[in-house]
Design brief:
Blueprint: E1 6-16, E2 21-29, H1 37-75, E3 80-84, E4 90-93, H2 95-103, E5 107-110, E6 113-116, H3 122-137, E7 145-149, E8 158-164, E9 181-187, H4 196-203, H5 207-217, H6 222-229, H7 233-247, H8 252-260
Antiparallel strand pairs: 1-2, 3-4, 3-9, 5-6, 7-8, 8-9
Helix pairs in contact: 4-5, 5-7, 5-8
Length: 275
């Protein structure tokens, strides 16, 4: 301080926590003389305002850390996640949702909202929105609503699941307090939803069993795999039964739900039977 001739200092500690200490000080030139009692009283009156400013800054940093952590977690998911407010405006979407919406194969983002691209889907889409909105208004349990957007050959089917947001990390106390609805988007043509090595380690599957489980999770049928792999259907059914036993599932449809990690139910059909 001496080169600037600031010899007089008045300050103190505004905030003290386990992690840090925030100090503040005012300097005065030598010629101005020392701080008197009136100056010190004025500084004391400033302390509460400085404390509030420091606390607000810490809260903003914590909120940003929470948002960054939440965004990182959502971007790691293999399904698209879109968070909407009470007016169905997009609050946040993860990378997978952005990818699906940009393809415009059934859904698209338009002026901050999600819209269907085919007229035949609009009635069902609006019905799903109204159902979820009514559940929120009536404080009903967050039961999901789902629709499948089917399209022409060469275009993927999109499964859309909407559910009221639960209190917690994405509710009123989380980084996105305006979120009312959580949407899950899945491109049913996506491959690579599960990893063979992870399945072998997690459930004790053999390489052949893990290969079959991955293929089923990607939407392939036993008959198709039998022709492609040059294996009998009896052999594949035997593999499937062992996969069901090791994974603790009872049917092929239940196994697929487990492997793809999707929280919605897909009704079992006769072709799902492993007998």
């Amino acid at each position: 301080m001496r080169p600037q001739e600031n010899y007089h200092v008045c300050g103190g500690i505004a905030v003290r926590t386990e992690d840090c200490v925030f100090k503040f000080a005012v300097q005065r030139h030598l010629a101005a003389g020392p701080f008197d009692q009136e100056d010190k009283n004025y500084m004391r009156r400033l302390v509460p305002h400085i404390q509030r400013a420091v606390n607000m800054g810490q809260l903003l940093r914590l909120t940003r850390q929470q948002v960054n952590a939440a965004e990182h977690t959502l971007n790691a998911l293999s399904v698209g996640v879109v968070l909407l407010d009470g007016e169905h405006r997009i609050v946040h979407k993860n990378d997978k949702a952005e990818e699906i919406l940009q393809q415009r194969h059934g859904l698209m983002a338009d002026t901050g909202h999600i819209r269907v691209t085919h007229p035949r889907d609009r009635k069902r889409f609006r019905g799903m929105l109204e159902t979820v909105k009514n559940r929120i208004a009536l404080s009903q349990p967050p039961t999901p609503e789902a629709i499948l957007l089917q399209h022409e050959a060469g275009r993927p089917h999109i499964l859309v699941v909407a559910t009221p947001a639960r209190p917690g990390p994405m509710g009123l106390e989380g980084p996105w307090p305006d979120v009312q609805t959580v949407w899950l988007l899945s491109n049913l043509a996506d491959a690579g939803l599960v990893n063979r090595d992870i399945l072998m380690s997690l459930y004790g599957l053999t390489a052949a069993e893990a290969r079959l489980a991955c293929a089923l999770a990607q939407g392939h049928e036993l008959s198709e795999l039998s022709d492609h792999w040059q294996l009998s259907r009896e052999t594949l059914r035997s593999h499937l039964k062992r996969v069901l036993t090791k994974s603790g599932t009872g049917r092929q449809s239940e196994l697929i739900r487990l492997l793809t990690g999707k929280p919605w139910n897909i009704s079992a059909s006769p072709s799902d039977s492993t007998s």
